[in-house]
Amino acid sequence: MQGITWESLKELLLAEYSLGQWGLVFFLYSFAGWCWEVSLYLVRQKRFINRGFLTGPILPIYGFGAVSILGVCVPFKDDVLMVALVGMTVASALEYVTGVLMEALFHVRYWDYSNRPFNLNGHICLMSAATWAFFSVIIVCVVQPYMRPVILRVPQTVAGAASGTLAFFAAVDTVFAVRKGLDLRALLVSMERYAKELEALHGGLDSVSDRVGEMIRSFAEHVDMKQEEMLAGAQRITAARDRVAKMMQERTLTLADGAKVRFENFERILSEAASYLPDTESLIREVEAIREQYDQQTEKLREVRRKKLAHTQRVLRSNPTAASRKHSRALALLRRHEEEMDDPEEDKTA
């Protein structure tokens, strides 16, 4: 292991396989990784999920991992402990870098170990590293001795042509997959923007609610000083004030449901208060204007989601554990919408 240089390592690698044969190794392990992931989800969820970022039946992270493991472990392939240690280190580093780059580009983590113990920023964890160590030993010490003679029987020209063809289709697949990933990012960004705008409209309702509450409190104080014949009116005002207080607690509702309930409450309260509060017409017009703007923003959000969801649906379904730190709320909403579309009993108008 002493004196290993890039030139000597390249000679060792080319002594193992030609470039075309290395390409075949890459695609074989990419396909094997896809089969592994699909089988896991078939057992866990009892349904087929076309796993991965691409549409084709390959998971390049497994292919790059296997080629990296085989490449760096060539100098000490007879030392099982070194194979496990070096393979684990290289594959984990590859997984971490890939996860960081994909999250930076798409704002989504296509795998997330944040809930696993001993994880590093959610991109790798102790369990995944141990799995890579196990796979490294299996690949280098068990599978490769049988696979190597088979790969070497493939003529270099045939291997090169096959690898080139597969690389071409994989590149085309990658272009479309990147586009879908960017569409998902754009959808999440737009949903977050609309969510903030809807929250601002809720803030407008809060302002109206505060003003109505203050008017009711002031009028109640005035009524308390009047004669007993005003007692019935004071009781009505107190009830309205209690409804406003209850309404203020309804901010924990979801944006869409909460807004609907709050608009109905406002319209009912202002209608009742019109007989004993001054200048309620301006408040009623303000609430109507906010409601109209809220409906317009909600419809825009639905339209954006309809246009983009067709392109992003495959990404969501193929990566059920995907997460997003920047757009967690929007991603959760998309997940819920997807579940409602899958379930015929759910209301699909949401």
Give an account of the 3D structure.
By secondary structure, the protein is an all-alpha fold. Helix content is 76%, strand content 1%. The chain has ten helices and two strands. It has helices at residues 6-16, 19-45, 60-73, 80-106, 126-153, 156-224, 231-248, 255-273, 280-318, 328-342; strands spanning 119-120, 124-125. It has a two-stranded antiparallel sheet. Strand 1 (119-120) and strand 2 form a beta hairpin. Residues 250-255 and 344-350 have low confidence and may be disordered.
Key words describing this protein structure:
350 residues, mainly alpha, two-stranded antiparallel ribbon, 10 helices, elongated, disordered C terminus
Q: How many E-type strands?
A: 2
User: Which class do the helix and strand fractions yield?
Assistant: mainly alpha
Cα distance spanning the termini: 63 Å
Question: Could you tell me the radius of gyration in angstroms?
Answer: 31 Å
